[in-house]
Amino acid sequence: MIRACDKKDIPIIQAIINDGAQAYKGVIPDDCWHEPYMPLDELRREVKDGVKFWGWEEDGKLVGVMGLQDVKDVTLIRHAYIRTAARSKGIGGKLLEYLKGKATRPILIGTWAAATWAIGFYEKHGFRLVSTAERDKLLPKYWRAPQRQFDSSVVLVEVEKANKAHEGH
Ligand SMILES: CC(C)(COP(=O)(O)OP(=O)(O)OC[C@H]1O[C@@H](n2cnc3c(N)ncnc32)[C@H](O)[C@@H]1OP(=O)(O)O)[C@@H](O)C(=O)NCCC(=O)NCCS
């Protein structure tokens, strides 16, 4: 079951992110890895900055989360994490499709270039990678992160709404 998360869920959201982020260990550049991957104060700041989370609940417990953040003229998908034990059962796909339906603006996703599984997952759900030149314009415009992280990241755009936005111009 998909449900909206609220402030009470912040500790469990943090636990899910930090569990899910273990997938990056040894994969992303070593100097980009830190533990906990998501400190509590950073997550609280993200929520304050407008990241709204939805989660997948099973037997009354959240096992996966995904966030949306409206920034300027686009919507970002932020912090998509499914607990390691609950992965590859379609939960991530259901959450992503649900959030795609909620967003009315063009949707962008930023992730680690080394997270090839995540890139494949997003491509399966109607996103395409943008060029490096486009990435270099989009990352500083819509995200806040160190340049080192930008250099190790990719950006994907949801094809359907991006095309519509383009036609509208
Ligand atoms: C990416 C993620 C959110 C997908 O959620 P999920 O519930 O596992 O996704 P689904 O079951 O709907 O889809 C699974 C698909 O994702 C991709 N995928 C997920 N994990 C994978 C892995 N370890 N290796 C390769 N592909 C993987 C595959 O395309 C897979 O399809 P398949 O099951 O047919 O092989 C989840 O795997 C996750 O939390 N990963 C670790 C954190 C992460 O990378 N988050 C993305 C941050 S932007």
Number of strands: 7
Q: Helix-strand pattern, N to C?
A: EHHEEEHEHEHHEH
Which fold does the CATH topology refer to?
Aminopeptidase
Helix segment tally: 7
Quaternary organization: single chain
Count of discrete domains: 1
Radius of gyration from CA coordinates: 15 Å
- Which architecture would the CATH scheme give at its second level? 3-Layer(aba) Sandwich
The low-pLDDT segments are none
Descriptive report:
This protein is α+β, with helices and mostly antiparallel strands. It has a single domain, classed as Aminopeptidase (3-Layer(aba) Sandwich), CATH 3.40.630.30. Helix content is 39%, strand content 27%. It has a seven-stranded mixed beta sheet, sandwiched between helices. A hairpin with a 2-residue loop joins strand 2 (52-58) and strand 3 (61-71). The longest helix is centred in the middle third of the chain and has 12 residues, at 91-102. It is globular, with a radius of gyration of 15 Å. The mean pLDDT is 96. The structure holds coenzyme A. Coenzyme A binds at residues 20, 23, 80-82, 87-93, 111, 115, 117-118, 120-121, 124.
In short:
The protein has about 170 residues and is an alpha+beta fold. The protein has one domain: Aminopeptidase. Helix content is about 40%, strand content about 25%.
